[in-house]
Amino acid sequence: MIRIGNKEVGEFPILLAPMEDVSDPPFRYVCKMFGADIMYTEFISSEGLIRDAAKSVKKLDFSEFERPIGIQIFGHDIQSMVRAAEYAENANPDIIDINFGCPVKKVASKGAGSGIMNDIPKMVEMTAAVVKACKLPVTVKTRLGYDEHHKEIVEIAERLQDVGIQAITIHGRLRTTRSSVPADWSLIGEVKQNQRMKIPVFGNGDVIDGESAKHFRDTYGVDGLMVARGCYGNPWIFNEIKHYLETGESLPLPNISERVRISRIHLEKSVEWKGEHLAIVEMRKHWSDYFKGYPNFKAFRIRIMQILQLDELLSLLTEVEHYYEGYNPEVRISNFLTESDQDEACHQ
Asked: What is this structure's pTM?
């Protein structure tokens, strides 16, 4: 049984990645329905938290159904990160997670996210300070290194373990690597095989279905896997992965009725959390993902983009269900990841 601190998280946990504008409470809810073992909030600015910025504070919301859950924070100033961690602890999550992975320029250029990998001593000092300030287990999500000349994750993982983190998730790309380039898991494997490492090592990058999950587990020996863009419009991927790891067989793709059912739940939870207007607007980015592989969906999408009333949107979803009744795409959704999906840099 894998543990983070004294929290049992499963024999081989499958984690939902913290993703800006994606992994909010409504989306986390549907992922939990399908067996996500650990989930994280969208990453939260330490400066935003300590200044009580409404958008940052709102990201602390979660339900008991989502546990175990981690609140992920990022920032470049050590004292601000300590204060933000203390603030986040007051929300009573299970884990405090430090984001050392975001490569987006406006974050990394300030020395936050993966930008701090250019200053490993500060990275270690910040982690030690947060660990010391927290009563909850502290974990880290990071990358292989700053750039091609600084692939230092084996050393980094050791040093972060030594200052007290309870688990590490490693994304198999560098700060400078675009997500259209396949993830390199070899160094993740080296971290796991390092005899000095005692904490759980989770791998992230290109986990898009049961087959890829089994390959990464069996080849690199990690303690669990984190799913990011593979879950776009595909929250059932957690169940699919677990079934494949157990049986070696792929589950049938969800039919149109199931896709409509889950997307409705996602929408309804969004309305509960955000209010009707904002939920309808922000759900627009999800519809094409839920119905990837269905021909002629563009016409429905154009209509969805014009809808501002919940009852009208629910009616259209019923129309979508009837239109595609009996049809299922032959290609798995994960194979429909578009270039724009791959370039969402902070959707780690």
From this structure: 0.90
